[in-house]
Design a protein that fits this description.
- This protein is mostly helical.
- It is built from 4 helices and no strands.
- It has helices spanning about 10-25, 30-40, 45-60, 65-75.
- The protein starts with 10 loop residues before the first helix and ends with a helix.
Length: about 80
């Protein structure tokens, strides 16, 4: 298995990663492994294609104005 070293992360970033690992019941090493493996598995081009298909599928539908919905909800 390959080893990877990441240098010069800010203390804030490391603290946030440690907190995330703790929330997920993992060591920092295990949490970083999950993050990197998930990031490597995402195919950006495929994701864009899926998003484009969804936009095409929804293009003929009438959509409500989200800003108006949020404003109405805040007035309650």
């Amino acid at each position: 298995m390959a080893r990877v070293l990441i240098r010069d992360l800010s203390e804030r970033t490391v603290d946030k990663l440690k907190a995330r690992a703790l929330r997920n019941g993992r060591s920092l090493q295990a949490e970083l492994q999950v993050i990197v493996e998930r990031a490597a598995a995402v195919d950006v081009i495929e994701s864009r294609d899926v998003a484009a298909r969804i936009r095409r599928r929804l293009s003929n539908r009438k959509h409500s104005e989200s800003a108006a919905l949020v404003a109405d909800d805040r007035r309650r």
